[in-house]
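Hi R.,

Here's the chain you asked about this morning:
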Amino acid sequence: MVRKIKSGVTRFPEVVVKPAELHKVRGYFSTRYKRYDLLHNHDRETGKSIYRYPAIQFKINESLAIFAYKQEGIDILKEVFLTSEDIIIEGRRIEVFGKEIEVKEVEYGEDGEMYVYEFITPWLALNQENYRDYRVLGEKERGGKLNSIIINNIISFCKFAGYTIRNRLTVKSKFRELDANLKGVTHRAFRGEFMVNFLLPDYLGLGKSSSRGYGNIERKL
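And the predicted structure, written out as tokens:
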């Protein structure tokens, strides 16, 4: 069954940042609007991380863009849109001359069809623990491992959206490995395509650090 989820994006057409700077941009907004844990995913009282699918995701879509999902994320996005006049990164002030906001509903879910997606930004599929396990696998087993991680990423999004998957998800994929820099640390990442029997919104982030612009997908077929 296909459903719709509310999606919003605020674009800053004249703000150009490097992918490696996105975590700093996110840090700036998280500090400025620290009362909203959906921006930084930390408990305000304890400081502990809140492990959940990120409702707000910072991306580079030619220029800086902030995506939000569900009403609670979009409400924060609207406040950011109305009150952002500059962005400060490590003492460097970037003045915001123009900004755009768009809110719409996007479809996702099961409809019996197969869809092909491309990772348009590096996908951080592995943490330190499962990377050690991944390294000792053969080529076929590595492919199966990555396919199961994609399925888990989709399940994480569905839990966030309140969607119950009714059929077994099947994935076919073709990836290449590459290095990606996150907060000055090199991580093993992947680019490529995958096919799955589930409809996903364009530019949705999957995997680790999707709130920082990693793992963005775009439908090809």
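DSSP finds five helices and ten strands in the chain.

Let me know if you need anything else.
M.
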